[in-house]
């Protein structure tokens, strides 16, 4: 969250073509007898690049770019210099127009932060002989591409929001090792005039439609800011605009998920909305799916469509009023059809659970992994198998309160899609629940005693099979300082690989994180 800076997070691939051209009106290459450019050197953040690196340069936006020339001037040249840059192929959105050329320097050498976002650029140095106004050019072709990673949303002691970007090799981003790590203050470094006050969470729009796929929404308690997905530049906070939401009250989507066929879902003030990007070329079509008087949990999930059985319930929500799971059936929220499972008296009716939902996430195979609270205040882990589109079975039901008091109302959860387990965090400890063996094991217990875990996430990325459902992120705060820990774990058992722990610091108080890819 837009997104990715001392620290912005773009990868800049710079193919440098060197040549000296005298300005005679057609910019054709000619001999220059009174100017001899011997060489140039390129530095990124004061690190001199090799010839190979200079030919295929990788930068982050706002890295310090320095280009130094060694040249001999003879025959009485009195030089002045001009560095110019312009965009030649914008990639921000369909219909975008290139930026106008702008002057960025007037010195012999360039030494400044490179603050451009993704796109293709021409960077050139113009040397002018003040004696006769002849001009000589050295040109650099630059391609800037957006990079991805983990957006870490945070708040400082004054209530101002910002986000950093974390990139590690496990994320399969295709970047060299020296480009990995954390880049801080991504948003604030380029959007100082649009501060985020009292932030609450991030929301990324990913619809599969190029017209709408470029937004990060930085949500706050009273407002929201739309940020370009690739450039991280603030766009607007006008809910009447084409990319905003014609909903009553403040925009505060507490639940969000991708649907199918360019559909998107969100929950606003307990009501479920479907956003259809196919019915019109300009304005998305908003459909309220929930009936008046019904209140829905902020958690939603999507089950991949099963074409063999023509599954109808890909997009699943929970009706807190009727205490049942529902699915979107052609813009109608329908209750599931329950079938008696193998649990006997422990069976839970998916259409009438008689419990409140605390958390929901897609589990292993075609299943709903849920954490629920009964009327006696006891907490349960319940798994519903919905492989059969005509019958939903309660396959697992564990009374967590009977096992220990580690799982509480405010515990944070992350449910695996590859193994029969889930992680949960309470206070400053992380636990592993194996719901096949019905065991709870503490797995992270070295977090400082005065810290509070604020987020727990599993990396879920089907395009990255080596680490899909095999990386755990644990975020904790000590006062206004946030820390992010990354662990590898066995995707079948959930056991952490002890030597894999990586710790990242330098954050303000962390309140949310989301993977941008």
From TrEMBL:
PROSITE patterns attached to this UniProt entry: PROKAR_LIPOPROTEIN
Name listed for the protein in its UniProt record: PKD family protein
Organism of derivation: Sphingobacterium yanglingense
């Amino acid at each position: 969250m837009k997104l990715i800076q001392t620290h912005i997070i773009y990868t800049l691939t710079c193919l440098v073509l060197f040549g000296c051209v005298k300005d005679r009106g057609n910019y054709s290459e000619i001999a220059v007898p009174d100017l001899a450019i011997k060489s140039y050197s390129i530095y990124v953040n004061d690190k001199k690049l090799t010839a190979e690196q200079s030919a295929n340069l990788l930068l982050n936006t706002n890295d310090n770019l320095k280009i130094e020339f060694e040249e001999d001037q003879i025959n009485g040249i009195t030089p002045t210099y001009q560095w110019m840059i312009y965009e030649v192929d914008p990639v921000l959105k369909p219909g975008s127009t290139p930026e106008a050329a702008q002057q960025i320097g007037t010195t012999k050498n360039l030494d400044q932060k490179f603050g451009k976002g993704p796109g293709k650029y021409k960077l050139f140095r113009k040397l002018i002989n003040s004696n006769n106004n002849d001009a000589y050019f050295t040109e650099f072709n630059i391609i800037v591409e957006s990079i991805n990673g983990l957006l870490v949303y945070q708040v400082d002691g004054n209530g101002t929001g910002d986000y950093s970007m974390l990139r590690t090799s496990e994320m399969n981003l295709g970047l060299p090792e020296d480009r990995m790590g954390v880049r801080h203050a991504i948003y604030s470094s380029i959007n100082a005039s649009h501060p985020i006050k009292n932030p609450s969470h991030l929301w990324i729009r990913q619809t599969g439609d190029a017209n709408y796929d470029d937004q990060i929404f930085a949500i706050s308690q009273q407002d929201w800011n739309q940020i370009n997905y690739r450039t991280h530049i603030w766009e607007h906070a006008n809910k009447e605009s084409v990319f905003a939401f014609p909903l009553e009250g403040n925009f505060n989507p507490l639940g969000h998920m991708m649907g199918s066929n360019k559909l998107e879902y969100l929950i606003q003030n307990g009501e479920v909305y479907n956003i259809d990007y196919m019915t019109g070329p300009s304005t998305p079509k908003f459909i309220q799916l929930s009936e008046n008087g019904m209140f829905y949990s902020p958690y939603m999930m999507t089950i991949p469509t099963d074409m063999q059985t023509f599954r109808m319930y890909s997009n699943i929500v929970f009706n807190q009023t009727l205490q049942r799971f529902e699915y979107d059936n052609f813009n109608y929220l329908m209750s599931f059809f329950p079938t008696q499972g193998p649990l006997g008296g422990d069976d839970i009716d998916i259409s009438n659970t008689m419990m409140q939902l605390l958390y929901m996430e897609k589990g292993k195979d075609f299943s709903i992994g849920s954490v629920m609270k009964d009327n006696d205040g006891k907490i349960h882990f319940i798994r519903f198998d919905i492989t059969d589109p005509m019958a939903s079975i309660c396959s697992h039901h564990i009374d967590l309160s009977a096992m220990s008091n580690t799982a509480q109302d405010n515990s944070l959860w992350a449910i695996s899609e590859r193994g029969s387990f889930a992680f949960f965090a309470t206070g400053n400890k992380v636990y592993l629940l194996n719901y096949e063996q019905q065991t709870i094991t503490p797995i992270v217990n070295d977090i400082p005693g005065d810290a509070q875990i604020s987020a727990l996430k599993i990396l879920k990325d089907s395009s990255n099979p080596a680490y899909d459902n095999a990386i755990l992120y644990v975020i904790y705060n000590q006062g206004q300082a946030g820390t992010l820990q990354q662990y590898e774990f066995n995707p079948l058992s959930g056991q952490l690989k002890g030597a894999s722990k990586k710790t990242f610091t330098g954050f303000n108080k962390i309140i949310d994180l989301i993977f941008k890819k």
